Known about the structure:
It is built from 20 helices and 21 strands. It has about 575 residues and is of the alpha/beta class.
Amino acid sequence: MRILAIYPYTHISSAALLIDGKLVSASAEERFNRIKMSTAFPDKSIEWCLRSNNLKIDDIDEIVIPWNPGKNIANASNRWTSEIRWRGELLSNIPSRLLRIKNGKEPDQISTKIDNLKIKFLNHHECHAASAFYTSGFKEANILTIDGHGENETCFIGDFNKNQIRKLFTIKYPHSVGLLYGTFTNFLGFKPDSDEWKVMALSSYASKKNKYDSIIENIYSLNDNEFELNLRYFSFYTFDRQKNFFSKEFEKLFGLPRLKNTKLLKRHFEIAGALQRSFSKIVNHLIKKCKSINRASNNLILSGGAAMNCVFNGTLQNNKYYKNNFISGYPDDLGVSIGACYLEYFKNKKRSKFKRERSCFFGPKFSDKEIKYTLDKYRIAYNKPNNIFKTTASLLSNGKLIGWFQDNMEFSHRALGNRSILADPRQKSMKDKINRAIKYREYFRPFAPATLEEHCNDLYFMEKKEKIDFMEKAVVVKKKWRKKIPAVTHFDYTARVQTVSKLSNPKFYKLIQNFYQLTGVPAVINTSFNINGEPIVMSPTDAIRTFYSCGLDYLILGPYIISK
């Protein structure tokens, strides 16, 4: 059974390929077309998924789309369906008119065929749920997904019951936790649906309650059934009719919005801090709701764009409702293509347990031969040391900034050791140096420590056997280590940790192990291999161009070292 998932035109386009229940390839289109957060149709990702597995499109059994337009066209305006402008619009006009005859009842699924090629359109939030549950390793779980919005839902509460994902409760658009956060992202001078993590980073500088806490709590409400926004303060749901996500009433509460690239004031930090506290309050309320619907499970799955909030995720270990939790390496819209594959494949299939995913290296891989060919083509001088790990660890310990390129590319917004920029976490100035000379980004944004998993409990306050494989949680750095690794210890003493295991990434593990032997510190700074405004590098050519465009000292391409 070969299933190809395609997700175009929304927050970030991607494609994924599942063969007989095993995910074999997945990539975001941005990595190929080099347009960050590209929403273009993923032609290049599709072509790579097929080519890398020696397949053609006619070899695919099913194509799945993690969005069900039936839920949209069921309620479409007459002006979209009264007439057609050309015959191709029959594809949308006829289903829309038939749904009107059925009194506009939303279809759970839409499918069609092009000759023998089957195409199915699946529910967006169910794909979010599937992307996490089927990679969690749990036999059963309660599931909570939160994002800006799917077709017409912003939150999904369900469980895995009788070998399928079951919907128990949803919150409807425009009452959206994700777009509440997006509205403040917009107000604070950043790009909504893209820069929310910048606001999250700001929030750490205002950890104490301030006057904005009570103001924010008055623009939404929580009750036994759901979460609601007071819509007088928002305009995101008016689509193109308003410039911003927030209304004039919103400005009366919070003042004038910050303009892009202007100075951050104290109130901006305070607003971000108050927002993060409200976000935590809301999500905990929804977790409680999740538990109240199905009290039998001690396992929680969290997915959707809101699950990218690593500050909140780090508090899940204190949650009193669930003993265990899981967040994938791609909880936002990047991962719904993978979720669509799993949702379709495992539908009605009996299976009692799924293996926990510890890595997400599903992207393109380049052999040593291909890397050497690229270096020779560009006439770039290189060395090939006997021990690349020992050599690189020595460079890091001497304060050098390293571009690290190995094996398959990550399917994640975060570099997890194969397309990474690495540095020494012992130097306090390293954070500012990387932000200024390499990433060209805001001074307040922190970096993550990639840490040997057997040493994590020594450095951080974590559950004894907890794994944070995907940088999905920020945890508190223990006091005795804060001065030892200042470059990765944030203002509030937290760090967005990545636990690195020998099994999930042996090369990255070996590098950090060599650094530990030299320095006594079992962690390195790990940030994504890209400069501001560009996607993470995919190919050796991307890596070389980025290397010569910023302040990196060395580039490690497979077994080869390039210097300036």
